[in-house]
Amino acid sequence: MTLASLLVPALRWDNEHGFSHLRRAIDDALSARVGGFLFFGGPRAAAAELAAELHTRSSVPLLLAADAERGAGQQFDGCVALPPLGALGFLDDPAGMRRAGQITARDLRRTGLNWALAPVCDLDVAPGNTIIGTRAAGGDPARVGALIAEWIDGCQSEGVMACAKHFPGHGRADADSHATLPSATIGVTALERDDLAPFRDALDAGVASVMTAHVAYPALDPSGAPATLSAPILSGLLRGAMGFDGLVVTDALDMRGVRAVGTEQEIAVRAIAAGCDLLLAPEDALALARALDDAAHRGDLDEERVRCALDRRDRWALWARPGAGREPSLDDEMWSRQAADATVHLVRGAIPRIGDAVEVVLVDDDSGGPWPHPDRAFFAQALGALEVEANVLDASATGTRVPVLIAAFADVVAGRVEPGFSSRSRDRIERASAVAHEQNRDSLVVLFSHPRHAAQLPGAPNVLCAWGGDRPMQAAAARVIARRSSGVRR
């Protein structure tokens, strides 16, 4: 018996080499009989070609996953990109949420993938939390639970596994688990009543998998272990009290929230022993497979615990076998666009008349993160496609009369130190608004971030929320501005 099938290594697209630089790692992983792969990035066609090869070559049925919280377009060019879950939650449309799950699954399935690492079931209840925010459907447990249940049902009705994350709730964590081991100091009563409610709804909807949080919950496990390594939380609460019999998968093993407590091999053994079935994104899959086998032979892993994990993986991999499915249609793409437009809304003030030209001041608080972000100039390009000349500047120019659009980016980014805007960015936004006022020019802050961050900008009279900095939301903001201004354009 080998435990390699409990590993799901990551495959990250490289803009210069594609997936080719991973060839040896892929060959080794397949030889070891890993249980799946996690895809990050690339054109849809390239991902589909690799997925087909992996399915053909693997001696075990594979689980091929992608982080698809904002649709498959979040990862793959050529797939439908959806608004952030918080934006869809703002619409409070159960049928729309179900359709979002269906569209995500259709795109993944035609790409050869069978596992969506979504939806987020955490609550957006802590303004100081830097990593959940717009990734969550909202802060009301009952409403969030109802919406994510629809998403799950829509996704799994298309033959793609969904994943409720991050159990038992990352929304109250006092830090970002990408950067450190956070703690959620919430009492058992409040956690049971609020944070666990969306997960119960996910389980009632038949969700295939649950992802653990690299967060400590002292009220549930006084040892201070992150949920990923906690038998009281996983075996006691999730498996026992809540009766979940699907797959339990760790969050990525390269995150500091779990690596803070041991080596990769140590935490992998502890995670399986605590109740996890699959280990996501190991850094060294071959060494980890050997370590797990050695731990099982030594008796450090309970034989029944290991057998249950292997059986669950096999059962769900068979359920999610690749096959023909319904592809996203033009209607799906148009629905996504219309949904994005509907989520863009005024936080305060009004959208000024923009006429034929505007100045765009870019304020980007998302640069410097570990992953590349969309081209911020796309907002100006989208305005140009609507026949609005948009000149991108570092600050508003003098001697012109055109309106000033301040495109302010403060998205959910791993490793962000503070929520919302840095003091430097706040100063730049406030100064651009003040200069426009001094010049008797209209201004509008376009907030590519959570709407609550408008409170950080008291000097901006007009603020439009567009939720996030992905290209679809930049395009949606451009359309809404052009449509709602008195100089109407389509």
Fold and architecture overview:
The termini are far apart. The chain has 16 helices and 15 strands. Helix content is 39%, strand content 13%. The strands form four sheets. Strands 10-15-14-13-11-12 form a six-stranded mixed beta sheet, sandwiched between helices. It has 490 residues and is an alpha/beta fold. Helix 13 crosses helix 16. The protein is globular. The longest helix has 18 residues, at 94-111.
Entry keywords:
single chain; disordered C terminus; four-stranded parallel beta sheet; alpha/beta
Any chance you could write out the topology, listing elements then pairs?
Elements: E1 7-8, E2 10-12, H1 23-32, E3 36-40, H2 44-57, E4 63-66, H3 85-91, H4 94-111, E5 115-116, H5 141-156, E6 163-167, H6 188-195, H7 197-204, E7 209-212, H8 231-241, E8 247-249, H9 256-259, H10 264-274, E9 279-280, H11 285-298, H12 303-319, H13 330-343, E10 345-348, E11 357-364, H14 378-385, E12 389-393, E13 404-409, H15 423-438, E14 443-448, E15 463-465, H16 471-484
Helix pairs in contact: 3-13, 4-5, 5-7, 10-11, 13-16, 14-16
